[in-house]
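Q: How would the structure tokens look for this protein?
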Amino acid sequence: MHRFPIVFAVLTASFFAASPGLAQSPFDSIDTPHGRCGLWAAIPGGGDLRRDAAYNRCALDRAPTLLDGVPMPPAPRYGAAIGQFTIIVNPDGTVDPRLTRAWTSGTDTVFHRQALETIRRWRFEPGLRGGTPVRSGFMLHIKSGPRNDTLPSRLEWTYRRGLEEDTLFGTWTTEAPLPPFAPEQVDSIYMAMLRRLVKMKVIVPDVLDRRCLVLESGDSAAHARLTWRAYGVLYSSDVYSSDLRSHPSALAPYGCERSTDAARIVLPRVHRTENGRVVLYPSGDWLPDWPPGFEGRTYRAWSARCVADVPDHGEVSIDCFIMPSLSQRDLGRWERERERKAAAAETDVADIDSLLVTVVAMTRGAYQTDTLHAVLRSLPRLSMAAVRDSVQPCGGWAAYSPQKGSELYVLQGSPSDMELRIVEVRHGPAPRGERTSLLCDPQEPRRADFVAFLLGDLGDRARAPITLCFSNGLRCSTSYVLDPNRHTLAERSHLAFRLSDLREDTRVGDQLVFRIYTDPVPPDLLPLIVFRVNGRWRMWATIPRKVAPDAWEYDTIWGEGYPPDTEVRLYLIER
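A: Here is the predicted structure in token form.
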């Protein structure tokens, strides 16, 4: 979340250290007939600009031209091509594969990856500056028009040059229908679809809840065959009996769609398109908890669009996009629930015997969550335990303590911000009257609620006073002394867990997402999250975003991703 300013500072420093042949500033620009032109092209993710600098198209005498006969990107599997890429063309006309990168990512990650691989094989007539071929960069937008999703189609690409950016536009052309799959292949597609819907928690198998398979063909023999196969897919878990005859009524017999005692699952027509691509539009009754995670609700029905890859040999792979059927009654109940929670949050909760804390955790992309609970008898208060000031100090900061051989940390910043800084404490006295490398910003200090405090289990327990110093470049212009006996806000975290503690189905990715609920809701509650990654504390303590009267959410993409040993500590504080 805070990598961008650091990367920017590194890039700026590299520009100022650049050789005379390059610009001395990343903001260099020139006047052109079309207006002001920034000299250098931005590279997604940054780079060493002494080595990686590329001219913007507007700074060239002649822009690069794509040569005829180059390969085009593949057709997207999910129906639409969407993406933005920066292309860096070398002086010899080849595309620099290291610096040519994607600005965006979409749901069709396979298409994005294959498109990028294709672009890196392109060749250009190189751009010229001062009559000499140079390295240059520009933005390319890839997009396509709509297609008939149920028929074989192909993409015809058109490359369109722009003044500053180019566009690769794809037009879908319908081709002749393909012969239908054999019944065995159709059955395997249906079973792959059911497995996926179970994995996504759209279908939650329970032998006590009757299910009804509905076939578009109305064929009783096909219904019997698919019912038997579906039973093995839906109830194959060790939770259920291995004897498939133990619950013969879990899947209703042929004609069950005409009764009301079973939840329907419609097995739709299989649409065969190009290159083994298949599209299905299943639907059904009862969606118990959607979307998975924090906002899950129960719906009376659902529909879906599923796209599958059916190889000549091997297993079918499939993914589905789910659409709940939301009635006016559902909408009304939803609004009433929101109003009830808002009214409950306004109730005065001055005296709390106990506070129930619930954390619902998952990783981005998972369809399951883990739930953790804690009960608190009291909450620490900033007003009683923290050093406070009405002015946010300016300049750099450092903390000092006479305590030897300890891992000590101070938290400081404004509780109105999204984060507090975690400052590692140095051993020794605070500097007085000596020049340091920490510079104070020239602007006036901003007025804000500034706090500084200690946490008893963040590192070692402090036993000696700690001086938090803000420097203007000459001396400690502002300092605060933290007494461990007075300014330790919490002796230990109120709830802690590791990413590796979550179930395998919950931690399918490496981006951590969780939501915090409290019952009741204390007035002016401040949740604070601290992360320990690869054995080191992150330098920021996060204040999660409030998303409901009783809920706070952490949902931030961290570039490196969270490894399995990541430890999360939650502190609940009253302001």
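The radius of gyration is 30 Å.

The CA atoms of residues 171 and 221 lie 42 Å apart.

Upvote if useful.
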